[in-house]
Amino acid sequence: MSHLRGLGRLLIAVTFFTCGFVVNIGQLLLILLVRPFDKKLSRSLAYYLHYSFYCILVCVAEWYAGSKMRVYIDPQDEQKFFGKEHGLLLMNHTYEIDWLTAWMITDKLGNLGGTKAYAKKMLRYVPVLGWVWWMAEFIFLDRNFEKDKVVIKTQLTEVFSYPDPVWLLLNAEGTRFTPAKHELSVKFAQERGLPVLKHHLIPRTKGFTTSLPTMRGICPAIYDINLAFKKNAETKPTMLSQLNGEPVEPYMYIRRVPLDVVPDGEKEAAAWMQNFFAEKDKIIDSFHETGSFFKNSGVKEVPEKIYKPRLSTLLNFLGWATFAVLCILHYLVTSLVAGNWFGFITVLSILGGFYSLMEYAVNASKISKASAYGAAAKK
User: How far is the C-alpha of 363 from the C-alpha of 356, rounded, in Å?
Assistant: First the structure.
């Protein structure tokens, strides 16, 4: 069984990185040859490149691992707004694969290729994935406010000028939740008279309040995503479990909040964010205590919806996997026939490199490897 899992991870790694390299080349060609003459066309074509790359791992989660997400969503809002307008995503940053569940839901809502995020600047130098994000115009921050406020204003104007709806993810907590960081967060809240949160870190409001003036008039809504997994679940929500074909069951409550409800003024908007996270904390606490996001939270209940995996993600994966495997087999066979041992060893080395990159990425996604930014900042 371990050998089969190893082969499965190798196939996923080869498919993911082959697709990523080709997408990198496609993005570069669009930037050099199309964007100078027609920015709208360049971005419209880039959408499909981004979608093709992101849905590789969506396919792994849903078709290979068999993960099934239960989503709670207002059907009227879904039909009228979801995937049809620009939006700022606010999501709890608790699990190793919270980003993957965000890809899963944006795929179902028809907006996966238009998903972007605020991210650490260093990530844009990560081979393949970081390059995709860089050329997809993610907003990369130094975590130096004087520099970042200029980047935020400039990049937000660019991002929300896309012809298709863009959903921009902001992890307002700044770093992934850990018990050590939560302890510091509680102390920080008590010292400053802020709401004490049980399941979240105190949100960092600077990025949000700095973004607001630019977003007004071009980004009509906040999409609040509340993600939870049952604590007694047999399979832990990790990237490794997905690559091993082990299903997980995410529960997600997502709601639309008009941006107009956020008050003007930096202090007023910051206070609104703190109170909003206190409400989010009640929603998550209600889930862990009762199994329902709504029973103890005071939030209006909406129906559950289970989205079926999209056939397009499976066909996309199979297409890239077939392309990658055929290219590798062709080069291996021709190298053997021609006695080109250097070429043969090179291909094997590339395969080993792809596998190592995937293992490195999985290890880096572990909660134990999370940034110390939150702990350091509160100290």
Answer: 10
